[in-house]
Amino acid sequence: MAEPRLVEDFHAETRHHRRFPESIVIWDETLRDGEQMPGVHFTPEEKFEIAELLSDMGVGVINAGIPVVSEDEARAVHRIAHAGFRAKILAAARTVPADVDAVIRSGVSQIAIFVAASQVHLKYKLRMTQDEVLAASLKTVKQAKDAGLFVAFVTEDTVRAPFEFVERLYREVQDAGADRLVVADTVGIMTPLTFRWYLEEFRRRVHPKDLSVHCHNDFGLATANTLTAVECGARAPHVCVNGLGERAGNASLEEVVLCLEALYGVSTGIQTGRIHELSRLVEHLSGVPVAVNKALVGYNAFSHEAGIHTHGILQHTLTYEPLQPEVVGRRRQMILGKHTGKAALAEKLKERGLTASDPLLLELLRRVKQETETRSKADLRRFLADYRKLFERPGLSDEEFWAMVSAVGIRPVSAR
After folding, report:
1. Is 77 in contact with 68 (CB distance < 8 Å)?
2. What are the residue ranges in the chain where pLDDT is below 70?
3. E-strand spans in 244-401?
4. Would the N or C end of the chain have less CB density within 10 A of its end CB?
5. Are 267 and 408 contained in the same domain?
6. Is 216 within the bounds of a domain?
7. 43/153 same-domain check
8. Counting beta carbons within 10 angstroms of the beta carbon of residue 334, is it exposed (0 to 12), middle (13 to 18) or buried (19 or more)?
């Protein structure tokens, strides 16, 4: 029998449907979009620490933030921009000249100029016409190009905008000098098949020199849609470590990178062996726990308890693991609990050079199962209660906010 492989030849059978770019540039948004996750705040020093590791691992582009937001943000972006990292450092700006000036002063080499495109955003948020959006976009793209910046142009909610406007806007900003065009699925409504059609149509109409995508995870499809985009030639997929980001988050760095490397055999230039280290750093600094069952970096991603699974793993790891845990800097765990089988216990005993007869193994197994089945769940329930209290409403409490209102002297009109 042939040696088992991770992926059979099915990917080869569908290769003719793909048009991978010649090279992939991982564009990380953890310090910008990731920080916009409710309750998350990175200090300038924390941003620097994350950026340093991202760059060391081989991330191509790091969005350091939006300098015009605050003095702290501008300081963080400036420090990262002048650190001499291998990664290209980018900062973001609205289609507002003052925003672009702030990016220019920060010293970054790249800028992402963003503006909303869909009718609902133009009517209710920007209160601008399509012509006004186009004029503002062209003005700021020219401003950034005149300053010598590499310009990525992004529209929020691209996929819900009228395609005629999308085509016109992107064609004109590219003619004005935009180097990279970014299509955004801002509320995560694309499915892989629909996104494939959209991006193929976008390429046919706009002819982008450099295509990029920004996918949100509202329906759990951000990684799938991002991979679809890379199959369609998108060169610079946007990602966030641990899938951080607004609402349900963004496409996860670890998922996108490992899917490209392990499933497609496409090089991303990322040192995957440091992904676990990166995940834990961002978990620590963001304060957002990684889900136990999170792909690749979750605590259970390489853990096994069920008897049939542990027996299979002990025979050959490919039975229940799609890749070796060391690939992402992890170690395999055999969990002893209700679903444990004899094979796992026998393997555990080997750690101390012990062996046991079948009757003794069965008695040990009975005790392991009994112990785990009768343990109290009180500690777990207390943890969940605290977790929900913390994350169901992150940020300031109502009590804290109204105390601030009183402190600054805001009073009812009748009391003035």
Report:
1. no
2. 1-13, 305, 307, 309, 311, 314, 414-416
3. 303-304, 333-334
4. N
5. no
6. yes
7. yes
8. middle
- Token look-up 């409490």 returns 397
Q: What is the pLDDT of residue 78?
A: 98
- In this structure, the answer to whether residues 26 and 117 fall within a common structural domain is yes
Residue 39 amino acid letter: G
The residue with tokens 């970054």 is: 108
Q: What is the pLDDT of residue 380?
A: 87
Asked whether residue 2 is domain-assigned, the answer is no
**Residue 136's CATH number:** 3.20.20.70
Q: What pTM was computed for the model?
A: 0.89
- Asked if the structure places residue 5 within a domain, the reply is no
Kindly state whether residues 310 and 394 are assigned to the same domain.
no
Distance in angstroms (rounded) separating the CA atoms of residues 75 and 4: 52
Q: Is 403 exposed, middle or buried (0-12, 13-18, 19+ CB in 10 A)?
A: exposed
Residues 213 and 338 in one domain: no
The C-alpha atoms of residue 371 and residue 386 are separated, in whole angstroms, by 26
**What is the C-alpha separation between 184 and 7, in angstroms, rounded?**
30
Q: How many domains does the chain have?
A: 3
| Distance from C-alpha of 26 to C-alpha of 63, rounded to nearest angstrom | 11
For the stretch 271-307, pLDDT in tens is 999 999 999 999 999 999 999 999 999 998 887 767 6
Distances (CA, A) of 357 to 336, 345, 362, 364, 393: 19, 12, 9, 11, 54
Is there a contact between 24 and 237 (Cβ–Cβ < 8 Å)? yes
Do both 134 and 231 map to the same domain? Answer: yes
Query: What's residue 415's pLDDT?
Result: 56
Domain-embedded: residue 1: no
Q: Could you tell me the residue range of the domain that residue 336 belongs to?
A: 306-373
The dihedral formed by the CA atoms of 100, 206, 157 and 69, expressed in degrees to the nearest 10:
-10
Q: Are residues 256 and 110 in the same domain?
A: yes
The answer to whether residues 362 and 400 belong to one domain is: no
Q: Is 384 exposed, middle or buried (0-12, 13-18, 19+ CB in 10 A)?
A: exposed
